Amino acid sequence: MLAPLADSARSHPEGGIDLSVGTPVDSTPELVQRALREASNAPGYPTAAGREETRAACSRWLARSTGATVSTSAIVPAIGSKEVVAGLPRLMGLSAGSRIVIPTVAYPTYAVGGVLAGAEVIASDEPESVDDVDLVWLNSPGNPTGAVMSGERLAQIVAWARETGTVVASDECYIELGWDAEPISLLHPSVAGDSHDGLLVLHSLSKRSNFAGYRFGFLAGDPALMSEILLVRKHSGMMVPTPIQAAAVAALDDEAHAAEQKERYRRRRGVLAAAVTAAGFRIDHSEAGLYLWISRDEPCWDTVRWFADRGVIVTPGDFYGPQGDRHVRIALTATDDDIDRVPARLA
């Protein structure tokens, strides 16, 4: 249903502006490209556990960026974050009869991962209200809403999960992109206490370092769970190529390029926020992350058509669940030139 409207937007006399897909458009930093080139002679097989240097870089980054202390033995590299979102239920051995709770408005792959495992998927923002839960997915900052969960709320869920034996996995891929709120990690001591038992976090370099085409993420947390997950990954051939790991180390250890990229997104966010507000839309949540979650209290497809008539492509909120049916998602991942053309289109 979106494709015809996207085609209509692209037929605008001045061309279409695509704000529907959260894929990076800025260049991968040269230091990352250089590290990839220098590691290109890689004749041997990588391991599922990854190089010690890779896991050490992940550990250093976690400490700097999230305040969490994680041993390298409790970190496993992944072939992009989506691979883990789709595969975690199976990596944990969940199947028919298992129950997974995901956010009510969420990235669709959380549900897909449960379906692939044959598990029951329940959408709820109150996981404590669901009985016999095996896995809870959290996403803070959230996609598509940009909502940030407070440390107090995260700690409540952790306490409940430990009482019930439930595993909590938090997708924190946007954690460095706080705007109006400061995101906190599930593994931060104020949330997790002095143990990571039953807790997993997922991180990615895609947005931070324009690394999406390289496919690299990592999972960290409960050492016992990580050991079990690694064992399954070994036999599944889930290995990150050695040159990609070298590039990831370079990206993780450099903060300057990430700060520059964040400022690009901050500026784009300001332009888009002013434009949609002036056009009569309300911005909900969107305290962090790469999206604006907007509404003017009409069916989301009416809003998508309104934007398409002006040559702008946005994503209907019901892609992310029924509760998103009166919102649309606008991505900050467009070029500066395209972003700067949006206000005139919406005026």
Summarize this structure as a short list of keywords or feature phrases:
alpha/beta; Aspartate Aminotransferase, domain 2; four-stranded antiparallel beta sheet; 15% strand; globular
Walk me through the structure:
By secondary structure, this protein is an alpha/beta fold. The chain folds into 2 domains: 2-27 and 257-346, Aspartate Aminotransferase, domain 1 (Alpha-Beta Complex); 32-252, Type I PLP-dependent aspartate aminotransferase-like (Major domain) (Aspartate Aminotransferase, domain 2, 3-Layer(aba) Sandwich), CATH 3.40.640.10. Helices cover 40% and strands 15% of the residues. The chain contains 12 helices and 13 strands. It has helices at 2-10, 30-38, 52-66, 81-91, 109-117, 151-164, 189-192, 223-236, 242-252, 256-278, 300-309, 336-346; strands spanning 17-18, 75-78, 99-102, 120-123, 135-139, 167-171, 199-204, 217-221, 282-284, 291-295, 312-313, 315-316, 328-331. Strands 2-8-7-6-5-3-4 form a 7-stranded mixed sheet, with helices on both faces. The chain has a 4-stranded antiparallel sheet with strand order 9-10-13-12, with helices on one face. A two-stranded parallel sheet has the order 1-11. Helix 5 links the parallel strand 3 and strand 4 (120-123). Helix 4 (81-91) runs parallel beside helix 5 (109-117) and helix 10 packs parallel to helix 12. The longest helix is centred in the C-terminal third of the chain and has 23 residues, at 256-278. The mean pLDDT is 96.
